Amino acid sequence: MAEDNCSLASDPESRFKLIFLTPKSSTQDILQYLLKKFPRELGSISPQKHSAFITSGMDQYTPGPEANPTIGAPGVEERVDENKVEMVVNGGVEVLRRAVNELKLVHPYEEVGYEVYRLECTS
């Protein structure tokens, strides 16, 4: 029988979902970097390791006048094929902070679009 997802965390308050957007061409490089830095903490769901849910979409934005965008130019509306990556983060707030800092280091964008949610255990 598979181990309950909640039992993987010593503290039920220590599980989060990290979601970030990335150009499609950078997705695997970012994932491999993060999974190498956090082999136990990121993407561990029950017996599965290095799990990530990836969906494709279109990002639309207009960089501000002071921006130095990786793609596009200030003041010009841009549309970019991107991936949305969702991963579980185990290990608490400090691990989450370190993972977000590493994401910002490796990500090609000046401003990284990301979200964080605390996961609740229901069993």
UniProtKB/TrEMBL annotation:
SUPFAM superfamilies according to UniProt: NIF3 (NGG1p interacting factor 3)-like
Lineage: superkingdom: Eukaryota
Gene3D superfamilies linked to this entry: 3.30.70.120
PANTHER family recorded: NGG1P INTERACTING FACTOR NIF3, PTHR41774
Protein name: ATP phosphoribosyltransferase
Naturally occurring in which organism (per UniProt): Serpula lacrymans var. lacrymans (strain S7.3) (Dry rot fungus)
